[in-house]
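Section 3.1: Structural characterization of target chains.
Under the original work plan, the team committed to producing a structural model for every single-chain target entering the pipeline before any wet-lab resources were allocated. The record below documents one such target. The sequence was received from the expression subgroup and is listed exactly as submitted; it comprises 408 residues.
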Amino acid sequence: MSSTVKVALVTASAFSIVVIVAFWVLDKGSAPVFSRLEEALNMVPDPFDFLVTKQPIEFADYLGSRQAAGLDQVVGFQAYLSLPEGTRQSLYRGLPTPGGRPMDFQTDLYAKLAIDLYAFDFGVWVSQPNLRECNFVVLQGTYDKEKIVNKMMGLGYKGAQHSGVKYYWLFEETTEETTVDLAHPLGFLAPYVNRVAFMDGKLLLGSADIVIESLIDVQLGNVPSMRADRNYVRLVRSSPEGVLGGVLLDYRWLRDTWHRFSNQYPETPDTWGTLANYTLVLFGYGQTGEFGQTILAVYARNSATAGERNAVELVNRWNTFRPGAYHGDFVKNFCSPLSTSVIERKDRGSFQSRGLVSRTVTGSYSVLNGTSQIIEGEDSDVATQGADLWRTLYESRQLTFLIRMEDI
């Protein structure tokens, strides 16, 4: 497969835009090198047959965080706690956690089920409030199966099988929905660990039978994974280097979320225009050298020029954005102005569609990458600071810099 690639490095001010362009052709015979994030897509079912709309996919590169901090050998929760407080703060910065409760989730998982998040290399998950819709977590790396199973047996788990793979269940499905008793000793963890399976160095956690069965099937190769979706693959391969944690957002989810929460959003500045149609967004935290960055990557399908057209608008929005009721200077207090680069590609060649049929595809796309260096410090007015800036904005749905009424 050959691919013509156009890269435009874009810097913008109120009056000017500078574009530097380079071209190259990917070597047809070169072997692909998959990032840990792309490998994680191979652990997630596509489509989510238990979902109507693709929900946000969160991910955490625990191994990458240890490497970025120079603490490769600090593996596991106890090793993490043994670090001096100052050193500890440099580890797992900016990474999301299932349920949005970083220390509560890790502490309870470890104490109640002997599952040690910080011993894994990578995690990917979808967390939704509706249990039947979907809650799942896939963790890749090191775990003590015997210890985890012993803990589960003491909590009342029972065994079952799917496609020859054993899994464990806690609350039985007696109706169309699974009812979880939050008064159980697992408490708020119960929806995430209602189903558990162990497969080839992976720990699978799911909310219901349909969820754990889909996770098992994708690990076995019986159903397509998200790596069969070339849009997600293109975005991940074109995103800035050094991404350690974040979320993959489908435009349709952003649109639906805007409709649900629009009455809570502040008015946007009159200087904002519109963003050209895009398909997916990667929003998260990354690190290059000593510097932490908030990262945005906006993927537009079937348009090799959308990225360049969106660059100035996204810079303007980020640099004039105000989260919630905050009236201070967002960029000055929490991060640097947004720097952008654009990747434009025109593809022609063979493509493995959903892992089943090989066909010839043509098309073009663009990825607008934005990075904003975070500013470390204290601010009593708002909690959006440091490496968790992206996570605070995402979890509070303060995403008007990505979508507003004029974009829909």
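Residues 1-32, 349-361, 379-384 have pLDDT under 50 and may be disordered.
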